[in-house]
Structures are given as structure tokens and as C-alpha cells.
Amino acid sequence: MTPKVSRDSVVDAVLNASRVLVAVAARSLGDVAEEVTLTQYRTLVVLASRGPQSLATLAEAIDVTPPTATRMCDRLIRKGLVQRRHERGDRRLIRLSLSEKGQVLVDAVTERRRAEITDLLKAIPREQQTALVDSLQRLASAAGEVPEQDWSAGWDL
Fold first, then answer.
1. Which residues of 71-104 are buried (b: 16+ CB within 10 A; e: fewer)?
2. What is the pLDDT of residue 153?
């Protein structure tokens, strides 16, 4: 019989795991830290995972105001990481998308992150990893995240 776990212990476990994952994320960005900020990287990931976005949709996804998103995207465009395109049917509508260089950056950071997480998972017995996968997928779904396989398909990860 599985022992009952309190809500507080679950919250504490998720907080501890989030600290570990934030540290992994920070280390994975180490090589590109001079090129992009954490918020800029999150923007690149949103574009990679959700495809081309209007500025308003992107601003909402990364939880910044449209003027802040505009300034940030202008910087990312100057760095060659994001592209701005007018819609064919309505030139007033602008779509932002990841450039090839932006894709390479996201791929590289993701690969470093995957390698470190792979090393961490070696400490968790195989039979417990199934429950971990299920729980983390539910957590990501509750947060509205797109499953990685939906946006990384075809990448050389």
C-alpha cells in the first residue's frame, strides 16, 4: 500500500526539483549567456515550440507587455536569432519566427540540458522513472506547456 503524501510535502518536492532544474537551465545557458538573456531564451523556445507568432501572442506567452516584447524582439532580430515577416494576405500583420541561427542556439542549449538531465536520472531506478515521467507530464500539461516531442520532432537532439 502506498503511503499518503501531504500536499505540503508534494509542494516542497516540486520546489526542490524546480531549484535543481533552474540550476541545470542556468548552466545550459552558460555558453550563450553573453548572447541572450533568460527572457530572450524563453522567447526563442516559445517560437521553437509554438511556431510563428504575432507580437501580441508572443508577449502573452512570455508574460511581458507588447512594448517590452517589441524591444526584446528587435534585439533578437538584430542578433539574427528571430525573423520578422509580413503576412501575405494582410501586410499589417507581422509574424515573428525563429531564424536558422536561433534554431541552432535553441538546439545547442537543449542538448546541453538533456545531457545533464540524463546524468541526473542515472540516480533514479528505472522502475521509478515511469511514475516520474507521468507526474512531470501532468505538471507540464497543467502549466500549458507543449510536449517536447511536438516541437522537437526532426531535430538532431
1. ebbeebeeeebbbeeeeeeeeeeebbebbeebbe
2. 38
SS3 146: coil
What confidence score (pLDDT) does residue 148 get? 53
Query: Helices in 1-157 by DSSP H: which ranges?
Result: 7-28, 38-50, 55-62, 66-78, 100-121, 126-142, 148-152
24: Cβ contacts below 8 Å, ≥ 6 apart? 113, 116, 117, 120
What's the domain count of the chain? Answer: 1
Angle 55-62/38-50 helices, nearest 10 degrees?
A: 120
Number of C-beta neighbours around residue 133 at 10 A: 10
Q: Is the pTM for the entire model greater than 0.85?
A: no
- CATH assignment of the domain containing 90: 1.10.10.10
